Amino acid sequence: MLQGVASPFFARLADALRACGHKVYKVNFNAGDLAYWIPRGDRAHFRGSLEQLPAFIESLWKRWGITDQILFGDRRPVHRAAVEKAERFGIRTHVFEEGYFRPFWVTLEREGVNGHSLLPRDPDWFRAAAVYLRDQPEQKPKRFHSAFRKRSGYDVIYHVAGMLNLVLNPRYQTHSPITAPVEYAGYILRFMRLPFWRKRDAAVIDRLCREADEVPFYLLPLQLNTDAQIRDHSRFDNMLQAMEYILESFARNAPGKSRLLIKNHPLDMGLVDYPGQIALLVKRFELENRVEYIETGNLEKAIKSAAGTVTVNSTAGMVALGHGCPTLCLSDPIYNLPGLTWQNGLDSFWRDAGPADTELFEAFRKVVVHATQINGGFYCYDGIEMAVENSAKVLCADNQPLERLLRACPL
């Protein structure tokens, strides 16, 4: 096991794998990793530079006789050497990530996730695979409650332990460009203001939905600037660049009466002045009274009435497709398939895009859930217990569901 989430999930998964007869080792990269592993033993602690990491990982593979490696997030710098070299050593890589469908799923795939997923990009394959799975009952997740305070509590424990990095690993650099104190300060200030925004934002959504027949509106759900989906899997450095590109196209090509609703990400840290930046873009592109910005609100309610949804590669795009909302991606997420998303560019999207093929989307959802999704969560007791039990079944099998599906339905 390499680096996991800031919670006890990896430690409890290791216990389950040991109970199945496997030998489990852990590589810790910082004091936070170590805090969630004590007192389980069988570990190594990497204290070197990233340049030294490939040789260190290779030495562990040989010393411990590693057959499989498990990690969270295939784009973290501490994981790149292990992911890129594993195949030539005959080592299988299992990658966890937040769920493609949320909130009751997490993702588990071989070799990579998101832009590195092994899922085919052929709509006909999804149709054929869905037919192959037609006799299997629909996988409906067991629900659980995952409070933000629980997730934030786990995160605080991780970063408080991280203060020992000055002694244990002074050369460690986090994959996040934002330090924990700055992140926490941003969250505290933002959450203090949320009660003042909720009523206002709900009224904005109500008004736009009520007027949608006469004045259509499009939806732009923002993503986190720190997300690998933006940093590593898109052409934009941040969401401000994406907004500039989208608003310029909207000004030139969208129907004259239409509006654009921009909704912030629920886990945004509040470190970017989006209202101020949007105001500058509105003035620059002469979009006064045509662009609305909200911090909170019911995303699904807005999607149901929207004329279209524009996203870089957010999972909100799959929510939009599920509600029949025309959707365009500015990057290449797993759902960016002909027949699902608009394929003819942003400028034509505003006037010409139609809804997705509903039968194709149902086939896509059935296959993705079967092949890559684990019912459970990373940040609450019930979710962790479910994710551990369901993940262990997949990891202990000779082949993961997607591998079996690819053999049964070759491209």
What would the keywords be for this entry?
17 helices; single chain; Rossmann fold; alpha/beta; 2 domains; five-stranded parallel beta sheet; 411 residues
H/E element order: HEHEHEHEEHHHHEHHEHEHEHEHHEHH
Number of helices: 17
| Spatial extent as radius of gyration | 22 Å
Unreliable stretches covering 5 or more consecutive residues: none
How much is the average pLDDT? 93
End-to-end gap: 32 Å
Under CATH, the topology of the largest domain can be stated as: Rossmann fold
The CATH class name of the largest domain reads: Alpha Beta
Estimated share of beta-strand residues: 5-15%
The description of the largest β-sheet is:
5 strands, parallel
Topology, number of strands: 11
Structural class: alpha/beta
User: How many individual domains?
Assistant: 2
Record the strand order, biggest sheet.
Answer: 8-7-6-9-10
CATH architecture of the largest domain: 3-Layer(aba) Sandwich
**Helicity, in percent?**
40-55%
Shape: globular
Can you describe this structure?
The protein has helices at 9-19, 31-35, 53-64, 77-86, 123-132, 148-161, 165-168, 180-210, 228-231, 239-253, 274-284, 299-305, 316-322, 346-352, 358-372, 381-396, 401-408, and strands spanning 26-28, 43-45, 68-72, 92-98, 105-110, 217-221, 259-263, 291-294, 308-311, 327-329, 373-375. The chain is an alpha/beta fold. 38% of the residues are buried. It is 45% helix and 12% strand. It has a five-stranded parallel beta sheet with strand order 8-7-6-9-10, with helices on both faces. The longest helix has 31 residues, at 180-210.
